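Can't paste images in this forum, so I'm doing it all in text. The chain is below; anyone willing to post the predicted structure tokens underneath?
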Amino acid sequence: MKKALVALAAMALGSSAAAQAFVHPAKWSVTAPAEAKRGGTYRDFSISEFKTYNPFTTAEATNLPDVMSAGGFFRFDPAAGEYIPYMASSYTVSKDKLVWTVNIRKGMKWSDGKPIVADDWVTTFKIHTDEDVGSNSYDSFFINEKPIVISKVDNDTIKIVFPTVDVDAIATAAYDPWPSHIFAPVYASKGAAGIKAMWSLATKPEELVFSGQWKPTGYRAGERATFERSATYGEWNKDSAGGALPYLDGYNYTIVKDQNAAFAAYLAGNLDTFGVRNADDLRQIKASTDSGGLKAVLRPNVSAAASSQWIVWNWNRKSDPFKQKIFRDSNFRRAMSHITNRAAMINIVLGGLGQPAYTSVYAAFTQWVSPTAKKYDYNLEAATELLGKLGFTKKNADGYLVNREGKVLEFDLSTNAGNTTREAYSKIFADEAKKAGVKVNFRPIDFNTLVAQLLSTGDDRKFDAILLGLSGGSRVYPLGSNVEPCGTNLHAFNGSGTCLAAWETKVTALYARGRQELDTAKRVAITREVQDTQSAEQAWVYLVSPNVHFTWNSRVRGEYATTIGNSVNGSRNIDLTWIAQ
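Text version of the structure:
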């Protein structure tokens, strides 16, 4: 899963106009354009099936619409450490910082040759902000529940009006446009239902229209998703010598059953990248490269993770009042945090290469992490004492805690099947829970099913507990617009649509205040107060933050320099990646 960012933009030009190129800075690659070779296919993998081509219904961190999209008005420059115009050529901001006027880069085209124009951003905005569509980006277009307003000035210009000063305005304005000439007629005639029915995995690739560098060529469930280079993208995306991008001819995802299968494929030289999980993976890669069996680059311990791993318990279990009452009790959740053996997760699963996590702010954002956040560290005696306050003071013949009525303290815990790291975390948690007398039924399930459960709303969602994670989010305000505030789609423990506890109301107000605070020191203080409040309640029990390691097959070139490659920026810009033949 990912923390959604806000988005806004617009403009276009007739197809006869010369493209106003975006030049990818030379600092984005360790190799000069003259060294780069053209051709070849980058070989990636996924441990779960993709869900859809539809950009308005996808919610997964790795998804097909992201692969197909060029991006938005702005993109982050990892070398400069700031956002720069991308699909925008320029922009102006009013003195009160509420009105942004954005000029669209000239000559950009959709894959079907139609010009990219202001209507594309406006239509995309309208669809994302239709509640009935259920877009994962919905919350990004509101500040303090007040909508951002996006309108067309002319074909080449968009106006964005913010309801209040927004410290994250430029990231908000960076959302991806989608073709109005494709989606607007369906939306006008069939509404949200029509949009949700579009662009399924059964849609023929030639019917898809996109802005990015990769043209879909096919999807086979359980096997692969394939893409080839788009010609229209290279008309306005250039390297520092003026060459069309990307250098690659194709990009493929192989669908594997789990992380172990992916690792085996990587060691065999059949994948170009792998997300190193732990010290054992590092040892195996090094041994394979030392023996000559694998030609690969290995960069261990690049940085702390820019992601989170957590467990949440469902507060909306109307059909099971027993569980709902327990899950809403902070004593239960604090006990669960005491049961969480973070040291074991780090040592056993990560091989010692990680650190405990206690808050929603990623470990990579060190200055933002609160030093005063409450830490309910591993302590089974403390957990037993807290559970006793809930009436669970005795154990049955099987060793599980029961209340006066003989009801066992029991719940189901799910994570995405095939993610061996999360499965291992879950098993450690379940084993420690058993020691404390809590019965945890661990049930890994399909990722898309898991996400659907987590994003479900209402007073009777059909899950007990989920172990999952988030990635993405803002660099200038590292709290999630669709995570912290009540009623947002990744406020994972409470899907009722409203605050159910006073502390939730407090956090929602603090989040809103932070979005308007332009002073960085004051914004850091607000972010830390949010963490302190959340950590006392443990609605999310945060687990561990692994160290991030990079590795790739040596045939792949054009990576970031070590000074800018990290867990926040990644290891490379795929446009400047090339294959040594």
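DSSP finds 15 helices and 27 strands in the chain. The radius of gyration is 24 Å.
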